[in-house]
Amino acid sequence: MSFFDKIFGGKPEEKESKSFWNLIESEKDLEDAIKKSYSGKIAIFKHSTSCFISKTVLRNFEKEIDDADNHNVTLYFLDLLAHRNISNKIAENFGIRHESPQLIVIKNGNEINNASHQDITLSTLYYE
């Protein structure tokens, strides 16, 4: 790994995916996630794989999740560059301005909290 990879988080292909993420890669995946919100809170992390800030926020959030005893929220991950149309659908469906990175918490089919950039923390999940 080069010096710059160490500083900036490595190459995208080197990043291992955390096991707690459920991927959203289609509109059907989004519909299934929203349906799941009727049986418990879900959160969708919208991430730009080419943005240093987004990578840093994601890494910090994942560390918080790893260190948490129990977060009781089903976590979903959306790669914005690969699935911009799904991100647009989320913004339209929930009336939320698109941001990146962004964490949207959904319960009973409704957005109950969202945060972007450095405001994304584990505490975002606990808002009622």
Automatic annotation (TrEMBL):
Domain of life: Bacteria
Record-linked InterPro entries: BrxC, Thioredoxin-like_sf
Protein name: General stress protein
Organism: Chryseobacterium aquaeductus
